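In this section we walk through a basic example: taking a raw amino acid sequence and producing a predicted 3D structure, encoded as discrete structure tokens. The instruction is simple. Fold the sequence below.
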Amino acid sequence: MSDKTVKSLLTVSHLKTHFFTEDGVVKAVDDVSFHINEGEIVGLVGESGCGKTVTSLSIIGLISKPGKVVDGEILYEGQDLLKLSYEQLSDIRGNRISMIFQQPQTSLNPVFTVGEQVAEVLQIHRGMSTKEAWEHAVEMLSQVGIPSPEKRAFAYPHELSGGQAQRVMIAMALIMKPNLLIADEPTTALDVTIQAQILDLMRGLNKKMGTAIILITHDLGVIAGIAGRVAVMYAGKIVEQSTVETLFEDPRHPYTKGLINSIPILGRVKNRLEVIPGVVPNLIDLPQGCAFAPRCEARTANGLEICAEQMPDMTPIADGHEVRCWLYTDQDKPSPKKSL
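The resulting token sequence is shown next.
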């Protein structure tokens, strides 16, 4: 990618996806903006319930009632996906944009062999014959590292290990050679060794096929090993965006700092892991100002009352680094008066 002009593949602008429940409106995604370039790997990270998965489902048009995308723009290769018909979006979904869901064993159909399920994608989108699609499916299973792919293609999902099932899901997602892959917690249910294998596989396919990847995870360690840029989400909003290197070397948002400080590091002796005080707010009843304010020790240390009164905008800190925090709204003040 270094010798080519970098082109934006997907741009999400001011996306809002709300769920209208009997208890109130859940603002699951509330004014989210980010982009991903061709061939790039971008991480979307945050605690469970912060809006990462809803963001991804909004992109591919899989929000169901009582949820609804109420505002924003999702430009994919210049087209606003939110303005496409169901048929137009269905042609893009699974063809040019693919998604890997969290639990492979429950995402696969238990009554069909894995070969049939991978081949079906080609039959639907390319109109291939059963025989031709099967041959391509076996080849794709081989590419994602399934041992004895000719034999395993006849296996049913319950006959696969968790790692093999995830590889099948990746094969299904990549067989159409999409230019964008959304991977939602692809390693969560796997042991550490298999996690590393799946991440190596995704990294290799990204380099070989040039597929851009949005990697959704709660694990900053996973992001550090594969992504180039990262967006940190909290309570439906992105609170910090930067390169991965910058995020770990110079995190600015107090929430980001808390996430990084809570990661156990080999060789670093601690009596106990650091934790972020308090709990994630109820998305139906969010605080008036910054959603992180009730948990933020930096707010107290700096005596910032405005945090509890008004939500800050995203503020540029440096090239490609921006943060949503009142500590950085003054450009002459690049760091808070008191650090955490």
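Looking at the output, two observations stand out. Residues 99 and 182 are 5 Å apart (CA to CA). The two ends are 38 Å apart (CA to CA). In the next section we compare this with other chains.
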